[in-house]
Design brief:
This protein is α/β, with parallel strands linked by helices. It has seven helices and five strands, in the order ααββααβαβαβα. The chain crosses the membrane at residues 21-50.
Length: 230
């Protein structure tokens, strides 16, 4: 009787050990297959999609789907930019771009105090006259966010403290500019339109182009195009 009981116990222990072993094997096999599928997806499927999907390449390059809206586009003063104006500039291909013109400190109080600020045409004429002999920085921002991003606003303020005008704009597909497909040629055309507008107003002063991150490449490409045109 004791022998039979012992034999049954040994049999159960053996079956339990085998079950545990098989479960361990199945878990290891499942983990391996899952890891293999993840590896295949990350290093095979995603690169293939990226290789043949122009929209994905464009989205990851420009990141214009990342929205960072820290101020009213039509009221740059809401971002602490004293006397700044909001305007729109249209490119040759008819794209409307959102633009801010922030003022040097020497003009900020005058801009706030002047009664002609309520007259849009008179205001624009006055701002343009200030640009004529001043130093103007055209700021080409990088990917993600827009001209209202905090770190960009801080840069405008620093440049204004140095008595520079700042023209900050958004490429098509960003912020309040026309929501159109974006690519390298498009952003170069946008920057070119901004520079043309600035050059028409800064006739006796100086113009500097400031590119940040992706904006550096855009600025360099645009200036190369303009130089090639003479």
């Amino acid at each position: 009787m004791v022998s039979r009981t012992l034999l049954c116990q040994m049999t159960l222990d053996c079956l339990g050990s085998k079950s545990t072993f098989y479960c361990s094997v199945l878990i290891c096999l499942g983990t391996f297959i899952f890891a293999l599928l993840c590896f295949f997806f990350i290093f095979v499927v995603v690169p293939l999609i990226f290789r043949y999907s122009y929209d994905m390449q464009r989205g990851l390059l420009f990141l214009n789907f990342v929205k960072v809206h820290n101020a009213d586009y039509n009221k740059p003063t809401s971002a602490g930019l004293i006397g700044a104006r909001s305007l729109n500039i249209t490119t040759k291909d008819g794209v409307r771009l959102g633009v801010w013109h922030t003022l040097p400190v020497k003009h900020q109080l005058e801009a706030l105090a002047a009664t002609w600020l309520t007259d849009r045409a008179a205001r624009d004429q006055r701002y343009d006259s200030w640009m004529e002999t001043g130093v103007t920085v055209v700021y080409c921002h990088g990917n993600a966010g827009d001209r209202t991003s905090d770190h960009r606003i801080k840069l405008y303020q620093i440049l204004n403290q140095l008595n520079y005008h700042v023209i900050a704009f958004d490429y098509r597909g960003y912020a309040d500019s026309d929501n159109l497909p974006i690519d390298e040629q498009a952003v170069v055309e946008d920057t070119r339109a901004i520079l043309t507008w600035v050059r028409e107003r800064v006739t006796k002063g100086h113009i500097f182009v400031w590119g940040h991150s992706l904006g550096t490449a855009i600025a360099a490409h645009t200036l190369a195009v303009l130089e090639g045109e003479g």
